[in-house]
Amino acid sequence: MTRLFQKLEAGEMALGVWLKSGPTWVSTIAQAGFDFVRPDMMFSAMDWTQLDHIHRTALAAGITTWVRVPANPWLAGAAQLQVTVDVQRAFAMGIQIVGASIASVEQVRACVEVSRDWHRSGTGEYPSSDASFAAMHKKSANTAIFAPHIEAGTAINDIDAILEVDGVRIVMLAMTDLSKALGHAFQYDHEEVWKTLDSIVAKANARGIVIAANMGYAYTTHDEMRDRVRRLHDHGVRICLMQGADSMYENFARRLIGDIRSAVA
């Protein structure tokens, strides 16, 4: 069991960061104490070979891989199911959590169905008998989870139906675009943004679904990040995707460099 699932099982908050490049960050992320890494194929040049290296490095380090595959929930259309192709490929590689920014409950149903697929060739698993073929259809609960990312207005409108989909275990609220879709762009603390989050958390809790949320970009200092994550936790978020590894490095290094330059001036 990788670290994200250990945290959830213990009733603790799981913390992770996203990556837009190769595997060299992963061991550092694990040693820093994060529970998962979220490779982002949606807004990066990351290819499938890089993703495979990231995932295998994460496995060796004991942390969970949660990939976001490419999608366009704003323009591709609510009935467009091309996203299922990449979702299936990621699951076949053995990645435990596959996310995608979705536009509709129809897309969620299709991607959850993909998570039940037996293909696991990327992990070296091939059926060699009727019994082994049947066993590959009976995956453990944490083997393949599709996590819909809610950030498009159409997905927000469908949230009640999405939470009713059998097999949904984790829902990710992408707070920057979610706030924008609600008409309060980048206003993470707007009353309506919190009201929407609280409503989704309450409905999810009633169905045993874990709510994840990203921290947001407006928090750049140690204290700001700590207080933001604590407030998300207080509102029922149990998985927090903090900023990207490169973004966090920039935020901390900028202040350090500024202090050093002042000291040696």
Distance between the termini: 51 Å
- For the record, the CATH architecture stands as Alpha-Beta Barrel
Can you tell me the number of structural domains? 1
| CATH fold category name | TIM Barrel
Q: Roughly what is the average pLDDT, rounded to an integer? A: 95
Q: Residue share in helices?
A: 40-55%
Radius of gyration, whole Å: 19 Å
Number of helices: 12
In N-to-C order, the SSE pattern is HEHEHEHEHHEHHEHHEHEH
Contiguous runs where pLDDT drops below 50 for at least 5 residues: none
Using the coordinates above, name the CATH class: Alpha Beta
Which structural class fits the helix and strand makeup?
alpha/beta
The portion of residues forming beta strands comes to 15-25%
Strand element count: 8
By CATH's scheme, which homologous superfamily applies? Phosphoenolpyruvate-binding domains
Q: Major sheet, described briefly?
A: 8 strands, parallel, barrel
Tertiary shape: globular
Biggest sheet: strands side by side, in what order? 1-2-3-4-5-6-7-8
Kindly list the characteristics that best describe this protein.
single chain, alpha/beta, TIM Barrel, eight-stranded parallel beta barrel, 8 strands, globular
Folded structure, characterized:
There is one protein chain. The protein has 265 residues and is α/β, with parallel strands linked by helices. The protein is built from 12 helices and 8 strands. The chain has one domain (3-264): Alpha-Beta Barrel (TIM Barrel), CATH 3.20.20.60. The protein has helices at 3-9, 26-32, 48-61, 83-92, 105-115, 130-136, 153-157, 159-163, 175-181, 191-206, 222-234, 245-264, and strands spanning 14-19, 36-39, 64-68, 97-101, 145-150, 170-173, 210-214, 239-244. Helix 2 (26-32) links the parallel strand 1 and strand 2 (36-39). The protein is globular.
